[in-house]
Design goal:
- The chain is an alpha/beta fold and 254 residues long.
- The protein has a domain of 85 residues: Collagenase (Catalytic Domain), CATH 3.40.390.
- Helix content is 44%, strand content 13%.
- It contains nine helices and six strands; from the N terminus they run H-H-E-H-E-E-E-E-E-H-H-H-H-H-H.
- The strands form two sheets. It has a four-stranded mixed sheet with strand order 1-2-6-5. The protein has a two-stranded antiparallel sheet with strand order 3-4.
- Helix 2 crosses helix 3, helix 5 crosses helix 7 and helix 7 packs across helix 8.
- The protein binds zinc ion.
């Protein structure tokens, strides 16, 4: 197996660049990357190399994980921080890849009743605070094949990772200087409240009703829309669409 990007550092500590043929193959594999200009592609490639050098990938449930899949995951995970700080994906190390949906046992502790309940969940992605990023490869592959259908599991989980940089996930990720905490909370809370009302009344919503589960899921779901169906987000919540453009798309220097 070729391993041209695995923890390859030079004597100077610089990251080994991603093999050109592998990079071009990734760019050609999904229309998702067509939207990036040359400068953004160059930065994504550097961020992807950094991700590959710093994360430890492991395959679960007999998945056949190869270098092209690692590279795709690294690029997708780096997409949200294209205009943020590269260190914002630090602080955790492990990426676990299942072939498809995976089952986890959930324990829920109800603070009011004190009752602990357990159940199995089928997941396509999961992000732990300081812990692993867990993904279903089948769903990552679907996102690459259909990048503008409103879903992107890697972006969703990385949004949780950015959220958890500031402690337990609460829908407020680490923010660049260009965005204040107050404007973030005001904009997102108003939109979350609107969605909650729509979902509680059983009406159809443009945004996936799953986003009404909690403020942190709302942020993760609208982040998916930002990258995979921005026109829908603009129709549903223009203020959120604008805020996320400033968060994810603004030039790093502003
Ligand atoms: Zn989530």
């Amino acid at each position: 197996m070729r391993a041209w990007w695995r923890r390859l550092t030079t004597a100077h500590g610089a990251l080994a660049p991603i093999d050109d043929r592998a990079w071009q193959a990734l760019l050609a594999s999904s229309a998702l990357f067509d939207r990036l200009d040359a400068a953004a592609r160059t930065r994504l490639r550097k961020l992807g190399a950094r991700f590959l050098a710093r994360k430890r990938f492991s395959a679960a449930a007999g998945h056949d994980l190869d270098d092209a899949q690692r590279l795709a995951i690294a690029a997708l995970a780096s997409l949200p921080i294209l205009h943020l700080d590269e260190r914002w994906l630090d602080g955790w190390r492990e990426v676990i890849v299942y072939p498809g949906e995976f089952r986890v046992r959930r324990t829920h502790h109800d603070e009011v009743s004190g009752v602990v309940t357990e159940g199995d969940d089928e997941l396509i992605g999961e992000a732990w605070e300081h812990g692993p990023l867990v993904l279903s490869w089948a769903d990552v592959a679907t996102d690459l094949a259909h990048p503008f259908d409103g879903f992107n599991v890697v972006v969703h989980e990385i949004a949780h990772k950015l959220d958890m940089l500031e402690g337990a996930a609460d829908g407020v990720p680490r923010l660049p200087a260009r965005i204040t905490r107050r404007e973030w909370i005001t904009t997102m809370q108003a939109a979350f409240d609107r969605l909650t009302v729509v979902v509680e009344r059983g009406r159809d919503s443009l945004i996936d009703p799953y986003a009404a589960e909690s403020a942190d899921e709302f942020f993760a779901v609208v982040s998916e829309l930002h990258f995979s169906d921005p026109a829908l987000l603009e129709r549903a919540e223009p203020a959120v669409a604008k805020l996320l453009r400033r968060y994810y798309d603004a030039a790093a220097s502003t």
